[in-house]
Write a structure and sequence with these properties.
Strand content: 15-25%
Number of strands: 18
Radius of gyration: 37 Å
Structural class: alpha+beta
Shape: elongated
Distance between the termini: 60 Å
């Protein structure tokens, strides 16, 4: 049973694959100025997402919240989120705060802005609320880490008991019971905290019955409920396992493996393996990875406990068995880990260029240290068995079997005198006995061998215990890094979000900040400030240009003129005058034709008086 549990837990404790939904595009575009008020807000993600009651919060130019319709998927596409807007929206800038749950069960959130008619004159920031409550997030992550640890210990201990077959399993009972209760408790905590974790609320929201009801009908909630059910079946299996008989072991292994797979699926169905590319292969790899992790890491704890109580003779059989099982587990981990790393990273550049890649490197270092410790343990394993085998063969020849005074004579073996076991002599029938060796000589020749071998075996057993203890400590670090990986946006998803929108969609708006300084001031108007130029869609053909001027105090200012021209030096095209017009607070045009792709020079001229003006050049990229 433990083997099954370990396999499952380890499967889900492996390195995450491509997951975490990332925002790919918004409609309206982030930072854009639209002439007509949109009827809907539409967000497109890199993977399917789940929607919340409060997935959209929209704040108007007056910083008051705008009523929106119920969040739903656009045209039934699971990778989109859409909410309706009122028919009439006032001119100005709107802030949209959004929050959804990605297919791997982790919430993702963000915010963007768009303007209707013109940008707002105010620069005040709207408080869209925290992305998540720190206490809720901390408690949820702690419960997830405990679940990984408990699962590995549960599966590893059972696997050790069934596959390595130690004569005395009593040292394994307490950790087995502790692992089961810890996994049960952490799963219950995850179930209660699921709703506030998704919405970013405080832990007190866990007692909201309506939120709990929503959790129980969601995919992550159903997976946690299934885990609780599997744990109840596991408890019955453990009780049966404690009273097992040798002839029942094959059946117990089969049932344990089935429970392990079922338990592992409660992770795979709701987390990383269920999202991204190659889902069937990823889920299979994830299960194998988690099982191998549990059998190895959880088995290390069971081995450490066994080393304290088992005899040297017993260890010579148990330790080599575990060594072979651990080697097979490491092989599985290497193959599945390589696949999952490729799936999560997407490219070698992401290995050092993303947080996910750097965490993966840290895990690689920790696993390398774990393998080095494992290699050291294998050396102690080989040393432990060798002297014991020598002692076994030497004892019958060197250790005398004394016969107490007044005891009946022992039966003779053929060709051996009746008390040869005591005297240490041999002879042919009818031969007189040879003189008995002196007491001191008999002790030095007969007792020194076993005593020396036993001391050497104990020394090597202590060495093996120390090396296994190091393995257990490093394994805990590996599982901690794994927990952090499961909450980090994978490199592949990050790259997908950064790519240009798919064919047929407009690329993101280009926003360029142009600082200027005329060196003079006119009345209350300073000669210093910045111009924010928005180029939409920054591609070949017709483009819209909007320019907003900010003063030195970061407030909006009105200037007599803003002029922008575009030149493509590599093709000797230009200058093309954008012919901006003042539309009340900012300068705009929707008819700038940029005929070629390339890096254009945008010259922005700001005139603050009849005679004071300055021209600043910036590079902008125009795509096909």
């Amino acid at each position: 049973m433990l083997l099954g549990t370990v396999l499952v837990l380890l499967l889900f404790g492996g390195a995450p694959a491509s997951a975490h939904a990332a925002l790919r595009s918004t409609d309206p575009d982030d930072g854009s100025v639209v002439q007509r008020a949109p009827r809907h807000l539409t967000l497109t993600f890199t993977e399917s997402v789940g929607l919340l009651d409060d997935s959209f919060r929209v704040f108007g130019p007056d910083q008051r919240r705008v009523h929106t319709g119920e969040a739903q998927h656009a045209d039934g596409q699971s990778d989109t989120a859409r909410a309706g807007l009122p028919k009439k929206l006032a001119q100005g800038t709107y802030t949209v705060a959004w929050r959804v749950v990605s297919a791997d069960s982790h919430p993702v959130s963000g915010a963007f802005t768009f303007s209707v008619g013109k940008r707002s004159a105010t620069t005040a920031q709207v408080d869209t609320g925290p992305a998540e409550d720190p206490l809720t997030g901390g408690l949820y992550d702690a419960a997830r880490y405990l679940a990984y640890l408990a699962a590995a210990l549960l599966v590893g201990t059972v696997a050790f008991a069934l596959l390595c077959r130690p004569a005395d399993t009593s040292p394994l009972r307490r950790p087995l019971v502790a692992a089961w209760w810890t996994l049960l408790g952490s799963t219950a905590v995850l179930l209660m905290l699921r709703a506030p974790y998704e919405t970013g609320a405080g832990p007190a929201a866990a007692f909201d019955l309506s939120a709990l009801e929503r959790t129980l009908t969601s995919r992550p909630g159903l997976a946690l409920l299934a885990r609780l059910a599997v744990l109840l079946l596991t408890a019955a299996f453990l009780l049966r396992l404690s009273r097992r008989r040798d002839h029942q072991e094959p059946l117990m292994r089969s049932v344990g493996a089935a429970l392990a797979v079922a338990l592992a699926l409660t992770w795979a169905a709701a987390e990383h393996a269920s999202a991204g590319i190659q889902v069937p292969v990823a889920m299979t790899s994830s299960v194998l990875h988690l099982v191998a992790t549990g059998v190895w890491l959880g088995g290390l704890v069971a081995l450490l406990l066994t080393l304290r109580r088992a005899s040297v003779d017993e260890l010579t059989a148990v330790v080599p068995r575990f060594s072979r099982i651990a080697f097979a587990s490491v092989t599985v981990l290497a193959v599945t880990g390589l696949y999952q790393s490729w799936r999560g990273l997407g490219s070698l550049a992401a290995l050092t260029g993303t947080s996910y890649g750097r965490l993966l490197l840290a895990k690689l270092v920790a696993v390398t240290a774990l393998l080095l410790a494992a290699g050291y343990s294998r050396r102690w394993t080989a040393r432990l068995a060798a002297p014991v085998a020598t002692a076994r063969t030497a004892v019958p020849e060197r250790v005398a079997q004394p016969v107490g005074a007044g005891a009946p004579a022992q039966p003779e073996a053929p060709g051996v005198s009746g008390d040869s076991g005591a005297s240490g002599t041999t002879g042919e029938p009818g031969e007189p006995e040879k003189p008995e060796a002196p007491e001191g000589r008999r002790e030095s020749s007969g007792a020194s061998g076993p005593t020396s071998d036993s001391g050497e075996a104990d020394t090597r057993r202590r060495g093996l215990r120390r090396s296994v203890l190091v393995e257990v400590a490093v394994a805990a670090v590996v599982l901690l890094i794994t927990t952090l990986l499961t909450t980090t946006l994978p490199g592949r998803a990050q790259a997908e979000a950064a790519q240009r929108s798919p064919a047929g969609a407009l690329p993101p708006t280009t926003l360029t900040t142009v600082p200027f300084d005329t060196g003079t001031s006119t009345g209350t108007l300073s000669g210093r400030g910045t111009v924010e130029v928005t180029l939409d869609p920054a591609r070949v053909g017709e483009n819209g240009v909007q320019a907003v001027v900010y003063g030195a105090d970061k407030g909006l200012v009105v200037v007599p003129e803003v002029r922008i021209t575009f030149t493509l030096p590599s093709r000797k095209v230009g200058p093309i005058d954008a012919r901006l017009t003042d539309v009340g607070g900012y300068w705009s045009t929707n008819s700038v034709n940029l005929p070629l792709a390339g890096t254009w020079t945008m010259k922005t001229t700001v005139r603050v008086s009849d005679v004071d003006q300055v021209t600043v050049s910036k590079q902008v990229r125009i795509v096909p």
